[in-house]
Design goal:
Number of domains: 2
Oligomer: single chain
Largest sheet: 5 strands, mixed
Shape: globular
Mean pLDDT: 84
Helix content: under 10%
Strand content: 35-45%
Radius of gyration: 27 Å
CATH architecture of the largest domain: Sandwich
CATH superfamily of the largest domain: Immunoglobulins
Number of strands: 19
Distance between the termini: 84 Å
CATH topology of the largest domain: Immunoglobulin-like
């Protein structure tokens, strides 16, 4: 009789112990994760980027030009931005940023920040309040007047208006190579120049075979340098960056090597191009693209 009672007590205690174990719920999914579709025929999984915030920038021009800067995090090191889709429904702009990830690839689990600049198609819109929805993150902007050029009242006829062209500024942040020999030399090796006080430095020329530097934060400001605050962009795997949807004018493109992100990528080293400050003033006309705003970086302890 006593042995039966002991068995029942032990069984109840075992059930109670296992009953305290919780089961993961849907709420345990990280906020930066967005469920993806099934793998496609070409071996990739498509999804939607997790956008955390958006900024709506109204450029100083008329008709006005409006761009949206979307920022967020990709779930791992293998997921990349696929395409940006834009549609307008009445007074609402819907922007969808999709992602793509190779199937079966082993990736880092750390979140990867991203930023995309999207030029909205606002030419010809009437005055009013408009809503922008980027992957579920919503903000608004207002046009106080119709976004079309004003017609001269004295002219009997008006020539057809043409939508304003938007410009682009871009370039590459690259590793300016200079292999310093162990022995003292009187003639600098290929890719290097002699410093006035002695020593060698990379020559500041973007040459064949010199690699781009990925993940660098590039800043854009209005007017001549120094100027920031208009937009930022991160270089891709080849060190390339782009600022699109820009009106005619003068801009400052710069890279701050003391930025927390850039510091982990660039330090120690120094700029060889366009100058030691890592800043360039670029002027574009309407619809012009300048894609040669490059930045050369010479690592102190690398070739």
């Amino acid at each position: 009789m006593d042995s039966k009672i002991l068995f029942v007590v032990a069984l109840v205690a075992l059930v109670a112990a296992f009953g305290c174990v919780s089961t993961p719920t849907a709420g345990d999914v990280p906020t930066a994760y967005v469920p993806a579709t099934e793998p496609s025929d070409d071996g990739v999984v498509e999804g939607v980027a997790a956008v955390e915030n958006i900024d709506i920038l109204i450029l100083e021009s008329f008709p006005v030009q409006i761009t949206v800067v979307a920022r967020g995090n990709l779930p791992d090191g293998c997921t990349t931005i696929n395409e940006v889709l834009q549609e307008q429904d009445g007074n609402t702009f819907r922007v969808t940023i999709t992602t793509v990830r190779p199937v079966g690839m082993v990736c880092t689990e750390a979140l990867v920040p991203f930023e995309k600049v999207v030029a909205l198609e606002v030419y010809g819109l009437p005055a009013g309040v408009y809503t922008v929805d980027v992957n579920g993150v919503i903000d608004t902007f207002e046009l106080t007047v119709d976004n079309v050029p004003q017609e001269p009242p004295s002219e009997p006829t008006v020539a057809p208006t043409v939508a304003p062209s938007v410009g682009t500024i871009g370039g590459q942040v690259w590793h300016d190579l200079c292999k310093v020999p162990y022995e003292t030399v009187s003639t600098p090796p290929e890719g290097c120049v002699m410093l006035p006080g002695g020593g060698l430095l990379a020559n500041g020329l973007l040459e064949t075979g010199e690699p781009g530097i990925a993940g660098v934060v590039v800043m854009l400001g209005t007017g001549a340098c120094p100027s920031t605050g208009l937009a930022t962009a991160n270089t891709d795997a080849n060190g390339m960056y782009t600022f699109a949807g820009l009106g005619a004018g003068t801009y400052c493109v710069s890279v701050d090597f003391l930025d927390p992100t850039n510091e982990t990528i660039l330090i120690p080293g120094g700029w060889t191009y366009p100058n030691e400050d890592g800043a360039a003033t670029v002027t574009i006309s309407a619809g012009e693209s300048k894609l040669d705003a490059n930045f050369g970086w010479d690592y102190q302890f690398l070739p």
